[in-house]
Amino acid sequence: MGDKDPQLTIYYHLSLETFMPQDHPLRAIRPLVDDEAIRKHCRPLYSDTGRPSIPPEQLFLALLGGYLLGITSERRLVMELQCNMALRWFVGLNLDQDAWNHSTFSQNRRRRFDKDGTLEWLFDQTVKRALEEGLVSQHVSADGTLVRADASFKSFVPIELTMDPDEYRKKLRSQDKDDDEPQDPGNREVNFRGEKRSNKTHRSTTDPDCRYVSKGSSGTGAYPGYTVNAVMENRNRILLGIGEEIFRGSTGEEQGCLSILKHLKRRFRYTPSSMGADKGYFHEEFLTELLDRGIEPHVAPMNIGSSSAHRRVRMRVRGLAYRLSQRCRKKIEELFGEGKDWHGLRRMRRRGRLRVRQELHLIGWVLNLKRLTKLLGPRLDAA
Predict the structure, then answer these.
(1) CA 354 to CA 252: how far, in whole Å?
(2) 75-129 confidence digits (pLDDT tens)
C-alpha cells in the first residue's frame, strides 16, 4: 500500500495544454471561432479611453463553451471557468487569472451586444462559412416549435390596468392571505382557480411579449412561451435561420419562415429551390408567397383548399422530389430536440423578444458549429 507524498510541491511548470485532451470536443470547435473577426466587429462598441475591458472574444467564447457543455446559468458558468481546465483553455484564461464576476455578461449585453446584434452576426458567420464551403444545397425545410418563456403563471394579470405597475403589484400583495408568517414578496400567493385566462385578457408582468402557448392536440395544458421558427438545409442539417414569433398559432410559424427567407436573400443572396414543411403550412397565402419567390412548396397536403396553389402542391405528392423533401424535413425536429436536451432551448433564460432572439442565435451558433466541426474536421486538422 502506497503512502502519499508529505512534501507538497510549491512550484509547477505546467500549461493549460497539459490538461486539455487531444480528442476533447472543445479542441475541435476552437479553430472555427475567429478571434480577430470578433474584435473587428466589436471595436466600434468600445471607447478609446478608460480602463481596458475584458476582451470581447473571451466573453463570447465563454458563452459558447457554456452552452456547448449545457451550462446556461451565468453564475455556474463562472464557477466552471474557475475550475474547469478545458473551458479555461477554450476561453483563453491563464492558470493565474481569476474568472470574472457573473454580472460581466449581463452588463456587456445590456450596454453593447444586444443593441448591436452581435450574436446574430456570429450565427450568420457560420451560415456564410457553410455557403463558401459548398455545404448548403438548394433544398431546405421549415418548422416551428414552442419554447417555454422565463415567466410564471402568477405573473399574468388582466390587461385592463389603470395604475402604475408597481402600485398594481402592491395591490396584489395586499390581497394575499394574512397569516402569521410574512409573505414572500418574490413569490406571492395567487388563487386563480375558476378564473378564465387567455391571451386576449391577460399579459405577463415579467415578460409582456410571451403568450399562453399550446399545441392543442398534444394533451398538455397551455403555458407561457414563444413560437420558435427555423429553416434547415437538407443535406447537412445546417441551420440557415432561426427566430422567434409571438404565438399566433400556425400564422406565426408561416410569418417567421418568410422572415427568415427574406433575411437569407438580403444577407447572402440565397434563395432555395424547394422547401419541405408539415401540413400546418398548407395555407393559400403561404403557398402563393413561396411560388412568387420561385420556391417549390413541398408541403404536406390537407383535404382543404381548391386554389391553384393547393392544386399545384397536391400534383407533386407522388413525385420523388416531394418524397425526399418530406423525409428530410423531419430532421429539423431532431435539431430542436438536440437544442432542448443539451443547449438550453427547452426554456428561455432571457425575457423580451429582443433578448430571446439573441439567445436563440446563440443556440443556433452552437448547433451550426457542431455541424461544421464534423464536416470540416479533416480540413481543419490539415491546416
Answers:
(1) 16
(2) 999 999 999 999 999 999 988 889 999 999 999 999 999 989 999 999 999 999 9
Residue holding cell 455556474? Answer: 76
Residue-level length of the chain? 383
- The residues pairing with 303 across neighbouring beta strands, listed in sequence order, are none
User: What are 52's three cell numbers?
Assistant: 481596458
C-alpha cell at 293: 419567390
* Cβ atoms within 10 Å of 257's Cβ, excluding its own: 26
Give the cell for residue 298: 413541398
- Cell numbers representing residue 183 in the block: 409573505
- Cα 87 to Cα 65, 113, 123, 168, 377: the distances in Å are 6, 22, 21, 45, 20
Write the CA distances from 67 to 77, 87, 104, 309, integer angstroms: 9, 11, 17, 42
